[in-house]
Amino acid sequence: MTAVLRAEGLGKKYGSRWALSDCDLDVPDGHVAGLVGPNGAGKTTLLNLAVGQLTPTAGHIRVLGERPGSGPAQLAKVGFVAQDTPTYPGLTIAEHLRLGARLNPGWDDALARDRIARLGLDPGRKAGRLSGGQRAQLALTLGIAKRPRLLVLDEPVAALDPLARREFLQGLMEAAAEHQLSVLLSSHLVSDLERVCDYLVVLVDSRVRVAGEVDHLLATHHRLTGPRRDPGRLPSDQHLVTASHTERQSTFVVRTEAAIHDPAWTVTRLNLEDLVLAYMDQRTETRRPTLEVQR
């Protein structure tokens, strides 16, 4: 597997607080990878490390086989759309494209102008007069026209209305397919990731909890519901993700490659939101007292 991003023991510390710690991660080439987690989980820190805007406190990170920001050639391979899809309010769309051409040696001007025309945007219009969705599309155009191998986007649609979000994500999917881009996209909106991502990374409390191809993750995670049971009695090939109990019933989310044959369990599949929430719930599970099971 060729990794567009590889992290080993990666950590970033601000003062006494670790914003990211013990991060081991391989994001494979050719995927649209979604990075999801609660606010403060370390998503933006990881992305800023990936594009070379931060340097690690601990561990190592390689993007496209090189240290992020190691030189002009490496920087040219990575496109970045930061939070709030930043543009310059006083510059026109055409001026943004000219700036992109001056700053990026691999700039594809025909691609940029064609995309602006297909979006129905007036090149003479200033960015400050565009809607939020239009500014996001302009920022995406700048990222794509750079002709990167990896496009990194940090919460690009968080402030957009549902229609603008859908149009932005549709444009992202089309660009990834047409130009064979690898994409790393962070969001706290699981429904958006479900539309576009085929690879998932869940980051909670500054650590990677799970990562893998979406189809495989959904196929290997199950909800088990049945008579109350001590989690320690689960088979060794069933990795417990989270557990909840009532007086008579237990509900577990487990990860396993094997079939589940125990007739005591009602087994149901998880959707992507269920899976993400199960790993996020580990924050509280690890702080709860062990429950005694009455036999």
UniProtKB/TrEMBL annotation:
SMART domains hit by this protein: AAA
Keywords: ATP-binding, Nucleotide-binding, Transport
One Pfam assignment: ABC_tran
Signal peptide: none
PROSITE patterns linked to this entry: ABC_TRANSPORTER_2 (PS50893)
MF (Gene Ontology): ATP binding
Domain ABC transporter, first and last residues per copy: 5-230
Keyword Protein biosynthesis set for record: no
UniProt xrefs under InterPro entries: AAA+_ATPase, ABC_transporter-like_ATP-bd, ABC_Transporter_VariousFunc, P-loop_NTPase
Protein's name according to its UniProt entry: ABC transporter ATP-binding protein
